[in-house]
Amino acid sequence: MIHVEDLSKYYHNLCAVDHINLDIHKGEILALLGPNGAGKTTTLRMLTGFLKPTTGSIRVKDYTIENDVLEIKKLLGYLPESAPLYHEMLVYDYLAFVADIRELSGNGKFARLRHLAELCALTEVMHRPIGELSKGFKQRVGLAHAMMNDPEILILDEPTSGLDPNQIIEIRDIIREIGTEKTVILSTHILSEAEATCDRVVIINRGKIAADSSTEGLKESTGGEYLVHLSLAHADMDKARKELAAISGVTDVAQTGGDKGDKAQNIIQLRITCQSPGDIRGDIYRKIKETDWILLELYQEARSLENIFRELTTEN
Question: Which of 7, 152, 202, 225 lies 20 to 30 Å from 232 when distance is taken between CA atoms?
Answer without folding.
Answer: 225
